[in-house]
Design a protein that fits this description.
By secondary structure, the protein is mostly helical. The chain has a single domain (2-224), classed as Up-down Bundle (Rhomboid-like fold), CATH 1.20.1540.10. Helices cover 63% and strands 7% of the residues. It is built from 9 helices and 3 strands. A 3-stranded antiparallel sheet has the order 1-2-3. Helix 7 packs across helix 9.
Amino acid sequence: MIPIRDTIKTKTFPFVNYLIILACGLVFLYELSLGERIEPFIRRMGVTPSSVSATLFHGRFVAAPALSLLSSMFLHGGWLHLLGNMLYLYIFGDNVEDRIGHGAYLLFYLLCGVSSALCEVYFQQDSTAPLIGASGAIAGVLGAYFLLYPRARVLTIIPLFVFFPVFEIPAFFFLGFWFLMQFVQGAVSSAAGGTASGGVAWWAHAGGFVVGAVLLPLFLIARRR
């Protein structure tokens, strides 16, 4: 399913959401400029689960920079990876920023990104493949939107072979189905030996969604106070 837009109008200009999108775009252009140096850059700035888990879960200190938990969410592995993530962030992020406030939204986004990466690390503790992408943080935004606007409608393209019909789908079903798919794929990948299926961090997506839903009430209470 490919979302086009939602039906919720914002009351404030979502400049933080746009700045995050711009930052991801600029970082990706920098990646493209690296040429053959891209691989060591990704390994240095991405999250390597085996290194992080050795420090967190096994008591063996490994010089895995904590900065990678932040930097990894601004890196992407290709144009489709970048554009797909930014499309979801563009459609759903502005409404969440509108509800919790600009500065709080930035903190919320970063917390969801770090937490989702740690969730993937927990389920993929032996993986040496670097974890990159904004999808975990964006999953947190989706979890918040799921609670805030369950009755919103999402204009969605559903590819059917050579046909591309467009439907309006309630956000509750759109995001609920999205989360279910991430959870099922994560469970399947774990059952298959803990290897991320197709290079997709399913547990980061599912974990980020849950973290976003859990953190949202705290941010709403903080804003009211």
